[in-house]
## 1
Amino acid sequence: MPEKLHDSGRSYHLQCTGDAAETARAHSSKEAITLFGSCFCPFVQRVWIALEHLGIDYEYYEVDPYKKPAELLELSPKGLVPALRLNAHNPPKALNESTVIVDFLEELAVSNVKRSSHTTESLFPPASDPYARALVRLQADTIERTLVPAFYRYLQAQEEDKQIEGAKGFIEAIEGLVTLFKRAENEGYTEYGLWNARGSLSYADVMVAPWILRATNVLKHYRGFVWPESKEFQGYVERLLAHPAVKRTTSTDQLYLDSYERYAFNRPNTSQVANAINAGKALP
Ligand SMILES: N[C@@H](CCC(=O)N[C@@H](CS)C(=O)NCC(=O)O)C(=O)O
């Protein structure tokens, strides 16, 4: 950690800022789907990006997942965000787990059940090409099992040697993902690689974008992180973060810096995710 930094005791934010605040305001009235979210949460941002990208109507509802209000616990057994409340059912139905929710939204959009006039692009290759779809799922699998935990191990590492090890682990995880993107490109699926010829978002892009964003502000600030040299990868990062659905769900850098100070100093009981990393267990 750069020496001048010290734990100033800042807490996580409870309201989006910047573009995300505008998007939240524009989605504050009742809809068939309510997203229970928290402004700093990357798992929430996945779902939020998918809703925006797929053009599905929704209400954004901010909650504090550490206070675990009853209305959140009704939807999500561990009181984790994101959670969806499906208001068209009586009583309403619920879904939790970001990966499952994004899958659900993709299927909802594709089956044309509920769609606004936004975009209607699928996050996956067509159903007629199961192999191509599996390649995208492989990318998402490495993000979930390797890249996401590597991000937290790096950010929570306190001693210098642990931070160096953390940086290595995170960079290796990025390289693993790049290898899978290149494999898709080499096998002719250029839309699902680093270059992403269709200029759209894939399932893997949605899965990774929140941590790419937080690497550019949180990891950079607290760990002095810089991207690997590759211009190709840096181009991917730029395109991903400039995508309208990503931008619309992004708060200002300060929100993330404040909200992640507790991780950067590994304060006790920061979150279920932080506890799992400290205990060497799988993330919740
Ligand atoms: N596996 C879950 C993880 C969600 C998660 O960890 N959310 C955090 C906020 S970023 C949370 O709700 N934390 C509350 C807690 O730790 O008690 C998912 O993918 O949705």
## 2
Amino acid sequence: MRREPSARTARRGRVPAVSVADAARLVGGVLLPVAAQGAIVRRPRAVALAHRLDLDARAVRTVRRLRERHGPDPVHLRLPGLSFAVPVEPEDVRRVLDGAPEPFSPASPEKRGALAHFQPRGVLISSPADRRERRPFNESVLDAGQPLHHLAGPFAAAVAQEAQQLADEARSQGALTWPLLSRAWWRAVRRVTLGESARADEQVTDDLLALRRRANWSGLAPVDRRRRERFLGRVRHYVEAAEPGSLAALVASTPAAPGVAPHEQVPQWLFAFDAAAWASSRALELLAAHPDVARRVREEAPAPSTDPAAPVARRPVLRSVVLESLRLWPTTPALLRQTTTTTSWRTGDLPERTGVLVFAPFFHRDESRLPQAHRLAPELWLDADGQEDPRGAVDWPLVPFSAGPGMCPGRGVVLLTTSTLLAALAQQEWRPAVPRLRADRPLPGTLDPFALRLLPG
Ligand code: HEM
């Protein structure tokens, strides 16, 4: 890991800021579309518009042009009261993400303002001192870095049961659509996260949704304290109930240092499971457009079992399709950090409290450096033996789950639950009502997951 130079040696000129015209391009072409689509909960109409205008592909082109014009140092945007840097080199992405929580703090002001609406003591917006206790707690409950979570059996069984019901509903209604997928997914998520008795508790996830809508406005919207109390109270109830086979039970039984606030770690998980549904919707569409890959998925392991005691298959091909869905259409397109000290770059320094925005789509879709940029390429995530490489792609910043000390500790649980859902659905063929993807054409920069409509094949 690169050492940060001392402030004394670092005190040179600033990294030059871009012109007003380029600042406008960056704000209008990259930052605004991310904010308008909703950073914390997506706004379906804005997503549909972004899909029509292929805004994410345009944003990638904007950043590429800025890199060509300004060279390898982060594009530095300076406006009154605001200093932002957008890295354009893979090595700088690594440096920023490896440098959490200091000198690149994940608890940026925008994120603190947003996440305080529903998880004021969550790890992601914690001080470095609180993070030291909360991060290991999250890792421990989520079995971060393990090949399969030790509760994979009950988790997969719950998801497989909901997937079966979903497939029945889709067949009887004539199409697999987003509203059906989303309802089934939340039933499964509540069972896995909170316990069996939460299966039909839509109030708890509806409260979270309402809080997330306000969180889209970050600190500009006042916190709805009554609803937040009610929501956190419900989550605490499930942790106290500690139903076997749920994450809530592990929250209750995992030793926690005094500053951890165990049940207040759960909202991040519930919130983040939504992104897994968007990724699954797009993965279904990828499979429908790539029948050869769908066939490999069916062949790699039998259908998931609905018995919690049955062994769970790892499904490397299907997991890599989910990873591809997240590479092609990252659900966290902007990884935000804030510098805690002066940082030194090639052409100069950036002062303390500079915002850093790693724009994942730029790296995931840069065809000048990644030949597979615009096609489905499961091999990017598989090693020579066809096994999923748990480190992800090491030489290239493919960072759908971020990287370094702030990397998503839920990665394994996400890949387990989504691959179980998809494996159950992939037992039969589905074809798009209106094909939006083609295997022989570059894949679009934006894919609206809410427009899913697959017909039983
Ligand atoms: C498709 C689904 C998901 C994706 C793409 C994803 C991605 C990410 C990313 C990019 C971050 C870093 C955010 C940042 O630095 O600002 C993150 C953080 C985190 N994720 Fe996930 N996540 C997903 C689902 C989940 C789930 C289901 C859980 C838990 C069950 C989870 C738990 C967490 C936690 C606790 C953090 C904060 C880590 C820290 O600050 O140290 N995520 N996730």
## 3
Amino acid sequence: MKRQKGWVVTFRPDGRTTEVMHGTPLLEAARKAGVALTTRCGGKAGCLMCKVKVEDQFAAGLQPPGDTERRKLGSLLVEGV
Ligand code: FES
């Protein structure tokens, strides 16, 4: 959900929510919300352990994936991951 200064991000299925500024990585938002996402590479698109699915109506609010993210995610991108 878009707010004036940022976004309210809700993580499902547990419904944990946090408000973050524009440009905040989703991994950082998850940590702020208290959602435990296992990581191996620290969010550098090396392990895909932190991947999340973004509901279609919110995808436009994300920065486009970088080259490494696109290469690693492949066909998962069209599924909203
Ligand atoms: S933590 Fe490795 S890709 Fe996210």
## 4
Amino acid sequence: MGERPTAPNGIILFNYPVSPFGRRVSWYLALRGIGYALCEQPFIMPRPDLEKLGLKYRRIPILTIGRDVYLDTRLIIRKLEEKFPDGKLGSEKPEEVFVEKLLEKYMVEGPVFSMATGLVPAQMMNDAKVMEDRKGFCGRDWTRESLEQGRPECLVYVRNLFDFLETTILADGRKWILNSAKPSLADIEAIWPMDWLVGMEGAVPSHVVSEKHFPKVYAWIHRFRAALDEAQSAAPGTAVLDGDEAVNVILQSSFSEGTGTVDQNDGSGLKAGTEVELYPADWGSEHRDVGQLVALGPDEVTVEAKGTGGAGAGAAGLRIHGPRTGFRVTEMGGST
Ligand SMILES: N[C@@H](CCC(=O)N[C@@H](CS)C(=O)NCC(=O)O)C(=O)O
């Protein structure tokens, strides 16, 4: 009999390789040397593995720890910092935490990703299914024509972004954003869209953005990639699970954390136990997870999905956690 599949540290990352958001998490795990299992997902819908879990959220990546499901890289990284505090990448100093948070807000919640996606080379959009699947994502229809049309504005924005880092925080020749000895959380928060753009052939023409124009930013990216290679070769190998294995591991696990409480000062007025829908506010909002509200705080909302799941998850339930910002939590049938 073969060995029963397991997930190191109870962690499973649902991701596909070209996801720049997914890289935020796989880089974090590699830099920390935290072992996990990967369950690779298709680039477009449907995603049957997630359906089997009864999950409706359609963005990538998703991370599970035991029976707890974490949505959105902001919350995923925060949770990993909390659950594996020894050697965490975030700072303890308030002014550095301020920088990390602002970078997260600008790079993840702000306009950066949308502007960067506007530089996806138009010739890459040659699959009608992909265009249909991503309609409206980052505010575009993803036709070649609209990409071509929007390109100049995105290029101006991205060039300014490179210039911003080159002439401010990296100007003094420091190796890492917070002048740390190793890459820290602030580096992850800042580097992922830049690395994605530099690595995407045809995205940024070399007369506008290049090593020559922005030597410090490029050197930082090279340094980061080298640090990552080093961490990856030292890290425990990633276990790979297929969809059925991942679903089984999750459904045989227990919850990895307690339920938490519902903050009466949240502003929504929602009460513990109310049946709610949870979904991202910006895109993919029609994919809504339904469950009972079990926790609500300034940074996190948790619903327990019971009976709404797929084949396996329905009976026993999963707890689905989302960040509070950028997500909506609304009472089923209500107007909250
Ligand atoms: N704020 C989310 C954004 C996630 C996101 O937009 N991911 C992209 C992939 S890089 C996505 O979901 N694209 C649509 C899809 O894969 O279905 C996060 O930080 O996780």
